[in-house]
Amino acid sequence: MSNPFRSRTRSGWVEGSNEGRSRPIIRPWRDGRQVVYIWDGLKAERKTVTCRSCGAELPAQGRFCPQCGAAQLLMCRACRHANMPGSRFCSQCGAKLQAEPSSTASISAPDIRAAVPFAERRQLTVMFCDLVGSTARSTQLDPEDLREVIAAYHSCVAEVVGRFEGFVAQYLGDGALVFFGYPRAHEDDAQRSVRAALEIVDAVQSLECRGQKLEVRVGIATGPVVVGEIIGAGALPEKGAIGETPNLAARLQAIAAPNAVVVSPSTQRLAQRQFQYRDLGRHALKGFAQAVQAWQVLGAQPERRSEGMGSLAAPLIGRGAELAQLRSVLDSSRQQGRGRAVYIRGEAGIGKTRLLEEFCLMAREQGFACHTGLVLDFGAGTGRDAIGVLARDVLGLTLTSSVEAMGAAVELATKQGLIALDETVFINDLLDIPQPPQLRTTYDAMDNSTRDAGRRMAIPRLIERASRVQPRVLAVEDLHWADRSTLAQLAVLTTTAASCPVLLVMTSRLEHEALDQAWRAETGASPLSVIELAPLHDR
Question: In terms of C-beta density within 10 A (0-12 exposed, 13-18 middle, 19 or more buried), how is residue 313 classed?
Fold first, then answer.
């Protein structure tokens, strides 16, 4: 008696039989996150999958990871296509997506082998970080103590990488292989990797474990790879990447000094505007036929300045009407002593940043001081959000300023009348400055709502007082990533700008309406100019 079966191919389902066989044919088929097995006309699915964010094991039909809370791909019941989290309809067949039961079919195939490894080609930024001096440390510490030290280091790396939505692919003893761009890709993965590397260096140095002073070296490279389940066999093959890029990241890590981050030319090009670099020259790296240029990351750019950019940036073409509108806003603010908010909207890559740079050039020529903050779509540290960056810049500080320098700047601003005495505690909190003894008791007595309200009002008052000394332009980019707290602070700044010489210019993508009716209601009757950037070919 024949045993009918159906197996899926790239062109559809294929009918067949198992006549003459001792057991039914089992054919694995990968569908999104799952491997589907077809035999005797029945279908069984792998019961567990790997979290696309942290790598934890979870039920195949789980919608969220129980370990990190990350949303998982949604499987279409009609065509079994994997859709992005939050999708309501299948992007492959158009069927409405529904939450599937977390339990899978109880049918189990006889002798089902391990899942067929799945890998794909994509652009990836690879980070390799290595703990310095592990061999010497192994001769000094008991193995259990050494394990505790390495575990603390691994935990530190994983915590920082997770905040920037990277993926720890492997722990290699005292090293860690990290991917940015897999399993989830972002348009700024190179920038995320460098920021994460700098924070890893700082965090590892601050670790206290068994009296050990820890140091780390980091290498980063960006390029095409084949990435996925490519290492080992069995039910849960490890994820890895094949190509030149992982090898280059490891070689760059080897030439890095302790507590230094070295990147490849491709990574440096993608993140050159956000960071300062030192040219390390060309190095002959093992396994590479030609010498490779290397760059050491010195830190984040203190400010993306507009002075002198006219000779370096590409000329602005086709935006004469928008520039005229912005020039009119500048002239009006300078003459009347009052400002307004300007909202620039447009598709990604249409030229919002370039228009903003040209506007800052015009503003500086008319005597305005310009301050720029960027809203990141991943976790920035306390005081390093867009509003915090604006406050630092008004005080003459950068993201790399020391605690001592920040304390001195706040003290000077207080003496100059830019910060009131009762606002110092909130400015210190915003900039992550330890509260002095005379303010510690006051700060500890406040609840969170009082602290939030104080921070929200301290920044507008600082900017208002500073604008009396020199008119200001506050530029906030990528508002589509802003959270509620940032939007609430921008609403207060919009109200402030209407009564003093301050221009608040915000940019956002079209698909995200950050400044909705509820937000505009918070600003009352404060003026808001909206500039919609259309494609140049539509003109």
Answer: middle
